[in-house]
Amino acid sequence: MKTNFDSSQPIFQQISEMIEDDILNGMYQEDDQIISMAQFASTFQINPATAVKGIGLLVSEGILYKKRGLGMYVAKGAKQTIMGKRRIRLYDEMVLKLLEEAGSWE
Predict the structure, then answer these.
(1) Angle at the Cα of 80 from the Cα atoms of 79 and 86, rounded to 5 degrees
(2) Tens of pLDDT, residues 49-90
(3) What's the DSSP call for residue 28?
(4) Residue 39 CB: number of other CB atoms within 10 A?
(5) Please, are residues 5 and 44 in contact by the beta-carbon 8 Å criterion?
(6) DSSP secondary structure string for all residues of 59-80
(7) pLDDT value of position 49
């Protein structure tokens, strides 16, 4: 897990991507508990609300789920969901831009 943030995007988005990376890299498996929001805030010295927002993003996408009173866990199929999401983002950000640039050479 990376330990510093850059200014290219909001911290809460970087937190959600860090967790996604950990899932893709096998650090977390389906039904594994991730570190708590308080641990995130303490480890990275950020506002707890920022950690909540980043993790909440993953809950809304079905990548994590909450067990009341116990914490956040990796949802079934999370790895496939993340790969699909990233495939779409790659297409939108890179392939379409490349096609636009190629078309402007005509």
Answers:
(1) 90
(2) 999 999 999 999 999 999 999 999 999 999 999 999 988 888
(3) S
(4) 12
(5) yes
(6) HHTTSEEEETTTEEEEPTTHHH
(7) 93
> What's the CA gap between 95 and 79, in Å, rounded?
23
Q: What is the pTM of this model?
A: 0.80
Scan for tokens 């079934």, then name that residue: 76
Q: What does the pLDDT read at residue 101?
A: 76
* Share in percent of the chain as helix, strand, coil (round to 5): 60, 10, 35
Helix (H, G, I), strand (E, B) or coil at 81: helix
- How many CB atoms are located within 10 Å of the residue 49 CB? 12
Please give the Cα distance from 83 to 72 (Å, whole number).
20
Q: What angle do CA 42, 46, 58 make, to 5 degrees?
A: 95
Q: Which residues contact 61 (CB under 8 A, 6 or more apart)?
A: 81, 85
Amino acid at 98: L
